[in-house]
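Structure in, sequence out. Go:
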């Protein structure tokens, strides 16, 4: 192997340390003091207060490798070579210190000199009016102008409401024509060919309430690069799943199923989804989130249950998924000691949830099959909302799962009907609530585990107590 993911991560941090950055450890996945965010979803997320001036950073230059969860990418997992629920984002940040020129030059230098990537494969996107970025890439770095592409506000301008904002520039790597979705697949296509690797955000404006973009006195840099993607390119493999971050996991799964990783697209997808989802769930539980019916706990429950469903496609025995945890700990436990420390609890939670879900899954699938048959006979294509709700409420079948199975079979679900059934049930539960014994799905074992890991930083528990119906 050319370079291990450990070496890549290490080299990134060392490179920016050599440029006087303070190396900070990854923050937990559960945001601290930020009710607007469910999960830390980018390297800059823990530093928001440094960017908007509410707090003073420990150094004006900072670098990290941050664990992130993005639930908006769940559907992409396994379908693309490059999206995960949990991934690591490598980042360098400037709080009113260096700006565009250094950020671009260092990103280029790191990729070409430290990672030894071939810059003739680079495609650069910039914001259409960012002449400064164009000049740096073309005249200072020497990227041919044909491969520096101007994009609009949607793609290459970062802003959330009013306040600090600015253009960004992204570095993509052309994987070659074999990866294209068609013969005329061009840069800008969403397929796996032109792989987005690194996003450099230049926070240089302050957007006022009147819609004016005023130059910021203190300009900031915020960059983010997916470690798994970078590793796939450096290691010369087709997808993130063939890197050393994932391969031990897929190999381990392979030892327990009769299906080969390459057997067919569905089987490969199942391997990938399981590997991805158990990684995500392992890290989330490691940071104190437990499966439940609300908020973060619901996200974890949904991800875990999705993994159970894919495990069924591989005929994996139940319970099995918890056995993957030590493999993950082996790969990443030294960098993220929290998963090493909580290995046993993580295994217990996954095992318990998987067993419980398998039982309901068998029952739920049968009910869904009957429903579909009934719709078929009546020439209908939409599964009624109240039925979707019953599956969710009584059989523990997440709505998304019903939707997914329905979609596979060419059916839709009545979303609005589901939502109103849900609202009705919430109102009923609120009225009927008598004590604090809230999560009706909670088993005795669950409570034991919860007590075991019920430490002050254990935010998932607090959320469950305060928000569950
Ligand atoms: P994409 O367009 O591929 O979905 P993005 O534009 O949403 O990525 P950014 O928000 O710019 O991603 O994040 C910075 C970097 O983090 C990306 O360039 C990529 O390397 C990595 N990244 C983003 N989302 C994921 C994900 N779901 N899984 C793995 N890596 C990711
Ligand atoms: Mg994205
Ligand atoms: Mg993108
Ligand atoms: Mg991007």
């Amino acid at each position: 192997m050319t370079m291990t993911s450990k070496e890549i991560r290490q080299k990134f941090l060392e490179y920016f340390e050599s440029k006087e950055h303070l190396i900070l450890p990854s923050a937990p996945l559960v945001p601290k003091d930020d009710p607007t965010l469910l999960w830390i979803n980018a390297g800059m997320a823990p530093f928001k207060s440094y960017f908007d001036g509410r707090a003073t950073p420990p150094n004006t230059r900072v670098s990290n490798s941050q664990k992130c969860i993005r639930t908006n990418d769940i559907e992409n997992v396994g379908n693309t070579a490059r999206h995960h629920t949990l991934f690591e984002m490598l980042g360098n940040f400037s709080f009113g210190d260096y700006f565009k020129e250094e950020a671009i030059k260092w990103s280029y230098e790191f990729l070409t000199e430290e990672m030894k990537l071939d810059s003739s494969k680079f495609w650069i996107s910039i914001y259409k009016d960012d002449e400064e970025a164009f000049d740096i890439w073309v005249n200072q770095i020497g990227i041919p102008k044909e491969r520096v592409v101007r994009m609009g506000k949607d793609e290459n301008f970062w802003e959330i409401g009013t306040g600090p904002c600015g253009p960004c520039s992204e570095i993509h790597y052309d994987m070659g024509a074999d990866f294209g979705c068609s013969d005329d697949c061009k840069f800008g296509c969403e397929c796996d060919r032109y792989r987005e690797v690194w996003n450099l955000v230049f926070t240089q404006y302050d957007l006022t309430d009147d819609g004016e973009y005023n130059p910021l006195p203190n300009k900031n840099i915020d960059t983010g690069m997916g470690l798994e993607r970078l590793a796939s390119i450096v290691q010369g493999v087709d997808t993130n799943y063939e890197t050393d971050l994932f391969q031990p996991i897929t190999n381990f799964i392979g030892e327990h199923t009769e299906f080969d990783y390459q057997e067919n697209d569905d089987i490969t997808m199942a391997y990938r989804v399981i590997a991805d989802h158990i990684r995500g769930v392992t890290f989330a539980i490691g940071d104190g989130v437990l499966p439940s019916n609300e908020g973060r706990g619901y996200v974890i429950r949904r991800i875990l249950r999705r993994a159970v469903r894919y495990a069924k496609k591989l005929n994996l025995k139940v319970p099995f998924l918890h056995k993957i945890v030590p493999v993950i700990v082996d790969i990443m436990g030294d960098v993220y000691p929290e998963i090493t420390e909580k290995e046993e609890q993580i295994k217990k939670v996954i095992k318990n949830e998987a067993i419980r879900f398998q039982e309901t899954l068998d029952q739920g699938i049968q009910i869904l099959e009957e429903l579909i048959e009934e719709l078929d006979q009546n020439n209908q294509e939409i599964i009624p909302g109240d039925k979707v709700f019953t599956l969710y409420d009584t059989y523990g079948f997440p709505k998304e799962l019903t939707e997914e199975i329905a979609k596979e079979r060419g059916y839709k679900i009545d979303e609005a009907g589901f939502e109103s059934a849900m609202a009705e049930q919430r109102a009923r539960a609120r009225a009927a609530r008598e004590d604090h014994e809230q999560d009706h799905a909670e088993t005795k074992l669950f409570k034991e585990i919860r007590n075991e890991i019920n430490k002050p930083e254990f935010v998932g528990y607090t959320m469950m107590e305060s928000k569950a119906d």
